[in-house]
Amino acid sequence: GNSVTQMEGPVTLSEEAFLTINCTYTATGYPSLFWYVQYPGEGLQLLLKATKADDKGSNKGFEATYRKETTSFHLEKGSVQVSDSAVYFCALSDLYNQGGKLIFGQGTELSVKP
Amino acid sequence: GAGVSQSPRYKVAKRGQDVALRCDPISGHVSLFWYQQALGQGPEFLTYFQNEAQLDKSGLPSDRFFAERPEGSVSTLKIQRTQQEDSAVYLCASSHGGQGADGYTFGSGTRLTVV
Q1: How confident is the prediction along chain B (115 residues), in pLDDT tens digits per residue?
Q2: H or E stretch including B93?
Q3: Within an 8 Å CB–CB cutoff, is residue B101 touching chain A?
Q4: Given an 8 Å threshold on Cβ–Cβ distance, is B33 in contact with A102?
Q5: Residue ranges in A1-114 assigned as alpha helix (H)
Q6: Is B48 on the interface with A (CB under 8 A)?
Q7: Residues of B in contact with A34 (CB under 8 A)
Q8: Between β-strands B105-106 and B19-24, what pairing exists: parallel, antiparallel or unpaired?
Q9: Which of B28, B22, B25 is nearest to B67 (CA)?
């Protein structure tokens, strides 16, 4: 079945450091890929998405490229801020095979120190 | 409302007690999903409604879990005879479209603790 695997946390970085959070997926169809972010005490928020191979999603300085050949959707940011501290979830949705429900990775906690 | 509202925000239940968790989706949103998020894990799908029809309940972990959305708006997730393994955050999400994850809005969740 479909699944998502992301790198384990916590990830601790200094402010202005480069961020990569790895995400790989397994899917039988042609899924859409997502990154969600969960700030402390808040609900899940969509950070960015990509709906087909080679698409790049971007938002708030974060980017991720849908790589079908490596089944990956790694999240990157060139210069993190303390306010980026949160838990990040990679997810996929296979509209045609699973009706649009999201399948999430286990989450990666990011802590950015001043 | 402006967002997806879930209540209560926190619930402590004694083992064996029945609980009911409420989700008020964004007005006019057709699709509604319930997810279960255990501590330190990603959310896991429970069930999906399109209007009042429950189209997928494959994620419900046992027959103690029941969800309804009788008028196609507010939804209730009921857990009967709660067990400790039911302790988790229960998330509700809604979207305007009939299918697809492009426009989901998540609520803040209900944290259920079974003691």
Answers
A1: 579 999 999 999 999 999 999 999 999 999 999 999 999 899 999 999 999 999 999 999 999 999 999 999 999 999 999 999 999 999 999 988 755 566 788 999 999 999 9
A2: strand B88-95
A3: yes
A4: yes
A5: 95-98
A6: yes
A7: 101
A8: unpaired
A9: B22
Whether residue B40 and residue A107 make contact (CB cut-off 8 A), yes or no, is yes
Question: What pLDDT, on a 0 to 100 scale, did the predictor assign at position B113?
Answer: 98
- The DSSP code for A67 is B
B12/B115 Cα distance (integer angstroms) = 7
Pairing type for strands A19-21 and A44-50 reads unpaired
Residue B22, CA distances (Å) to B49, B50, B66, B93 in order: 14, 17, 12, 12
Question: Which residue(s) pair with A64 in the sheet?
Answer: A57, A75
Q: Taking phi first (over 0 means left), then psi (-120 to 50 degrees means alpha), and beta for anything else, what does residue A28 get?
A: alpha
Contacts of B73 (CB under 8 A, 6+ apart): B24, B25, B27
Chain centroid offset of residue B8 CA: 12
Can you give the length of chain B in residues?
Answer: 115
- In whole angstroms, what is the distance from residue A29 CA to residue A51 CA? 12
Give yes or no for a contact between A44 and A93, defined as CB atoms under 8 angstroms apart: no
Q: What is the identity of the amino acid at A43? A: G
- Look up residue B61 and give its amino acid: P
Report d(CA A34, CA B107) in Å as an integer: 18
